[in-house]
Amino acid sequence: MAFLYKSDAERGAVWARLFAERAPEIPFRQWPDIGDPAAVRYLAAWTPPEHLAESFPNLELLFSVGAGIDQFELAALPPRVGVVRMIEPGLLAGMLDYATLGVLALHRDLPAYLAQQRSALWQPGPVLTAGQRRVGVMGLGTLGRAVAERLATLGFVVSGWSRSRRDVPGIACHAGAAELPAFLGAADILVCLLPLTEATRGILDRALFAQLPPGASLLNLGRGAHLVADDLIAALDRGHLRAAMLDVTEPEPLPPEDPLWRHPKILITPHIASVTQAEGAALAVIDNLERHRTGRPVLGLVDRSKGY
Ligand code: NDP
Ligand code: OXD
After folding, report:
1. Peptide bond just before 297 cis, omega within 30 deg
2. Is 263 annotated in the active site?
3. How confident is the model over 87-123, as pLDDT tens digits?
4. What is the spatial distance between Cα 49 and Cα 47, in angstroms, rounded to a whole number?
5. Domain ranges of the chain
6. What residue ranges line ligand 2, CB within 6 angstroms?
7. Is the CB of 308 under 6 A from ligand 1?
8. Is the CB of 42 within 6 Å of ligand 1?
9. Per CATH, which fold does 2-88+276-293 belong to?
10. Ligand 1 atom at shortest distance from the alpha carbon of 177
11. What fold does the segment set 90-268 form as a domain?
12. Is residue 113 classed as helix, strand or coil in its secondary structure?
């Protein structure tokens, strides 16, 4: 039995140390030193090796080193392989910081003031308080729920949207396609923290933007492929949307000639909203391995029928 790590080598050294300290009974291997492929029962990766199922015939669990698992081709994996997304405190803490930054930047019109600064233009606009701003969070999972709760503590009027019904104290929760229009109609700032699945690909499109209140802003923290970029540019150019902040794009890196880069109402960061922290990640995986071996539920196990 062996655990194989295939990701950033520096972070891998932290994983190796923690495995040696906390789970010495599990041989830890770091890519490309895979040892006997038949011994590999557990694999942690961002991009998995090619021909995974054939190369590692006894694989039981595939851990993503990030929260997202959309980089895995689920259909190509045998049903016996469990796919596990990353849940660790550092990833959550980073997302809370960034979502706060993004929502405050949009709330206080930072994109417009940055554009004004580039033209040496001193032109104050109206100032609203957080309590006068409604924020809608798409996705009430590990990250979305915590972001919604954090934004509520800052005084924003927060609502959330998920696939199944959630109950989050202080947050107006909406569920499913039927409740999407009501949710969107009350979102002055829309935050996307959905996973990328066949159901959510391209969800941030012209039809969705039309249901947002005039002057609404968008913060996309999910995946670039959630967004139809031309529809965003059109909504910004005709003034229906006020601004957007994008941490994720399609493709990544965003090519230099892409019009999103130079749009005056768009702020872009290079997929840095949150990053998995090596220590928290290794400890979370070690805990999950223990759960797996003792027959308890693995945390973050993906429902392959839903794709997240
Ligand atoms: P979770 O799986 O915990 O939560 C997903 C949420 O989205 C759930 O509330 C789920 O609903 C909801 N959802 C899924 N599909 C639909 C749908 N079709 N309609 C409505 N709601 C839906 O994921 P995490 O919170 O851990 O992560 C979310 C995403 O954030 C990741 O997949 C990744 O893409 C992105 N991310 C981005 C980072 C960055 O740096 N930019 C860093 C980390 C993550 P339900 O509650 O009913 O299951
Ligand atoms: C993740 C990410 O999914 O960094 O963890 O986007």
Report:
1. no
2. no
3. 999 999 999 999 999 999 999 999 999 999 999 999 9
4. 7
5. 2-88+276-293, 90-268
6. 66-68, 86, 91, 274, 276
7. yes
8. no
9. Rossmann fold (3.40.50)
10. 19
11. Rossmann fold (3.40.50)
12. helix
